[in-house]
Write the structure tokens for this entry.
Amino acid sequence: MYSIKEIYYTLQGEGFHTGRPAIFVRFSGCNLWSGREEDRHKAICKFCDTDFWGTDGIEGGKYEAQELVDKIKSLWPLESKDIFAVFTGGEPALQMDQSLINVLKEENIETAIETNGTLDLPDKIDWICVSPKANTTIKIKTGNELKLVFPQQGLVPQDFEHLNFEHFYLQPMDSLEQEENTFKVQEFCLLHPKWKMSLQTHKILGIK
């Protein structure tokens, strides 16, 4: 059984697939923070802005693999068969396994994962986006997209440039200093053109 916080149809808001329709499947749980505000001060990642605690969100609950895939299919517009599903969290690698991937493949669903990169992944995921966090050890060093929230104390973008990713993104940290952070990302990308800016357009548009 998979513990799911929420499942919903929206537009991808950030990174390479910005603007692309997708079913978002948010797993409960993370290995860098419990998800409870009272624990944030002792979390490895203290800036997380996502609610992944519990299973009480939209379409949240406990699912078996086929049940989860059937739910994904039910939320996709009927006129299109090219289903794109983004698995996120929390940390989806805590639960996402080969059994689920195999069912998704049988149903011809294109799969993407947004992970912190600290845990191993099953095979045959179509799109791997790794978002490194400070004070962690990255195990996933090959993928499609590396998306770094910037700035993070103790984390330097150049330290990741040797990794085998197709795209490198910097995303301004959403905080009280967001305007300043956005300027820092802009300046860094101009000086280091290997990197591209990613904005959280879903927040700008006011969508989920």
About this structure: The chain has a mean pLDDT of 95. Residues 2-149 form a domain with the TIM Barrel fold (CATH 3.20.20.70).
